[in-house]
Amino acid sequence: MFSGTYTPKVDEKGRLFLPAKFREEMKEGLVITRGQDRSLDLRTAADFADFTEKFKNASQTDARLRAYGRMLFALASEQVPDKQGRVSLTPELRSYAGLEREAVVIGIYDRVEIWEPSAWARYTADQEQAFANLSEEVFPGF
C-alpha cells in the first residue's frame, strides 16, 4: 500500500527520487503516465499490466473509452528505477503536470501521484470541505 506525502526535487535531467518507502515495491518496474487533474500517475508494472488487461477487455466501441486510452497510453513511460531510486519524467509528462524543480509525491493506496506543488495546494484547499462532508456518505458508520 502506498501512503504519505513527500516533496522530492526534480533534477536538471528530469529525474525524481522516489520516496524510500515506495522503492521496494517499485524496484521491478513501474509505469508513469498522465493522471487526472494534471497530475502524473505511477503504478507498479504488475498493477499497470492488470489495469491494461481490464482496459483491453472493455468495449472498444465506446468513444469515451477510446479517448481515455489514447490520453493514458500515449505518454506512458515504462521504467525501472536506477540504483539510487530515481525515475525519469519525460519532457512531455513534466509539461503536462507543470513540473519544474519541485514536486509533491503522494501515495494513494494502490498507486502514486506526482503533482506540481501549487496545483496540489489548490486541489487540497478546494477538496477539504468536500472531504469532510463525504466521509459519512462514502463509508457509512465509519
From TrEMBL:
PROSITE patterns: SPOVT_ABRB (PS51740)
Subcellular location: Cytoplasm, Nucleoid
Pfam families: MraZ
Keyword Transferase assigned: no
Major localization listed first in the record, in broad terms: cytoplasm
CDD domains with a match to the protein in the record: MraZ_C, MraZ_N
SpoVT-AbrB domain: residues covered: 5-47, 76-119
Gene Ontology molecular function terms on file: DNA-binding transcription factor activity; transcription cis-regulatory region binding
GO cellular component: cytoplasm; nucleoid
Example GO biological process: negative regulation of DNA-templated transcription initiation
UniProt keyword terms in alphabetical order: Cytoplasm, DNA-binding, Repeat, Transcription, Transcription regulation
Self-association and partners: Forms oligomers.
UniProt record similarity statement: Belongs to the MraZ family.
HAMAP family linked to this entry: MraZ (MF_01008)
UniProt name for this protein: Transcriptional regulator MraZ
UniProt source species: Nocardioides scoriae
Lineage: Bacteria, Bacillati, Actinomycetota, Actinomycetes, Propionibacteriales
